[in-house]
From TrEMBL:
One of its GO terms (cellular component) is cytoplasm. It comes from Mycena pura. This is CobW/HypB/UreG, nucleotide-binding domain-containing protein. Belongs to the SIMIBI class G3E GTPase family. ZNG1 subfamily. Keywords: Chaperone, GTP-binding, Hydrolase, Nucleotide-binding, Zinc. It catalyses: GTP + H2O = GDP + phosphate + H(+).
């Protein structure tokens, strides 16, 4: 296809149209998904699958790899696309567009956006053991960005691919006493977790690893996969940062006889978890008055921006000295019946009215993932609504 030619969007099949069904504003933006994951966990396998399968979507994939790996991957994709030339941008038989670039992802995306209209979704692979947090916050409500690429792109979600065999070991080795390791940051910052290579691990150890992942990130659905075989609609078009329902649909799991079936985790929800410096806290939030929602907003602001618990009790802040939030999500129900969604990445957050009210949940939920999330954090939160 000629560079100057502006292709029209393809007609989507019914399933596809559901996936990409957005309002006018969202339609004008191209959703972007970040893929991160452990070394050798199966990121390239997932990308190759997307680039070669007939799924009806035109997805631009940015392989942001260094050195030899990028070359190897480019060749592999060329073979898959029936011997196309090795180009910076490669159109593939299934309508996808591959961009293999060793530069920073941003430069690649800028180039890509000049071809806007030629694809419906962007997948950005991050290098090796990269923390997705900074890049996610760049694409999400960044004020400087809003006048540039942010006008054209909306962050859809972060996928983290975890190795079912070596994942637990990698998490252990990645730990240092002072900082949260990159692999744990990846899990913490993910909206979707792919637990891959489940064919190589015993069902028991896959269960153990899945429980570990759920402990670290209780808000992300976990899909167990073999060779990253996952229904594409489960990982793209999830709108994890939009004002929409945000928690895994339910803890009931889908059984499949086929090993490649993915399933949602179904263990009881942990309410507090701590592993090698990283912790998560899941708090049930009762129906709130508008006043309490404002107080909750202030609480979130103080914790995210100042790294401390609100109030004057010094003992609280002593204990919470290492308080830091990597990711937070919440759904709050007001006594008026309206629902509000909290989304936060690092120090950036928003609390906005939910676009799609799905049924009337009897209560809300708040998930915090970060460091220093001990029982005093929960107590401090619960005091907000205790006096209602
Ligand atoms: N048995 C088995 N092998 C897998 C599976 N997924 C990927 N592999 C193989 O594992 C190896 C590593 O997979 P990649 O997709 O290259 O992993 P990656 O995350 O892109 O690796 P890096 O970019 O080097 O970090 C390859 O040889 C894959 O064919 C799986 O589910 N089961």
């Amino acid at each position: 296809m000629d560079d100057d030619e502006v292709p029209t969007l393809i007609t989507q099949e019914e399933e596809a149209s559901t996936l990409l069904e957005h309002d006018e504003e969202k339609l004008s933006k191209v959703p972007l998904t970040i893929i991160c994951g452990f070394l050798g966990a199966g990121k390239s396998t997932l990308l190759k699958r997307i680039l070669t399968e007939q799924h009806g979507f035109r997805i631009a994939v940015i392989m942001n790899e260094f050195g030899d790996t990028a070359d190897i991957e480019a060749k592999t994709i060329n073979v898959a696309s029936e011997g196309g030339e090795s180009e910076e941008f490669l159109e593939l038989a299934n309508g996808c567009l591959c961009c293999s670039i060793k530069d920073t992802g941003i430069a690649a995306i800028e180039k890509l956006m000049q071809r806007k209209g030629g694809f419906d979704h962007i997948l950005l692979e991050t290098t090796g053991l990269a923390d997705p947090g900074p890049i996610a916050s760049l694409f999400w409500h960044n004020e400087e960005f809003a006048t540039g690429l942010g006008r054209d792109i909306s962050l859809d979600g972060v996928i983290c691919v975890v190795d079912a065999v070596f994942g637990p070991q990698q998490m252990k080795e990645d730990q240092t006493s002072e900082t949260v390791g990159e692999s744990l940051r990846q899990i913490a910052g993910a909206d979707i977790l792919l637990l891959n290579k489940t064919d190589l691990a015993s069902p028991e150890s896959v269960d153990t690893t899945a429980a570990l992942l759920r402990g670290i990130n209780p808000a992300a659905p976990i899909h167990r996969t073999v060779r990253a075989n996952v229904d594409i609609s489960k990982i793209l078009g999830v709108r994890a940062y939009a004002a929409a329902p945000i928690f895994p649909p339910s803890r009931t799991h889908v059984h499949g006889n086929d090993e490649q079936d993915h399933e949602h985790e179904h263990a009881p929800e942990p309410t507090h978890y701590e592993l090698r410096g990283i912790s998560s806290l899941l708090v049930a939030v009762p129906v709130l008055s508008r006043e309490r929602l404002d107080a909750l907003d202030e609480w979130v602001r103080t914790v995210l921006w100042e790294g401390r618990l609100p109030g004057n009790a010094s003992d609280e802040n002593e204990s919470a000295s290492s308080l830091s939030i990597l990711r937070c999500k919440g759904l709050f129900v007001l006594d008026s019946g309206s629902q509000y969604v909290l989304q936060g990445v690092r120090s950036m957050y928003e609390i906005v009215e939910a676009e799609d009210v799905l049924g009337i949940p009897d209560a809300g939920k708040l998930v915090l993932i970060g460091t220093g999330l001990d029982s005093r954090v929960r107590d401090s939160l619960e005091r907000i609504w205790a006096s209602q």
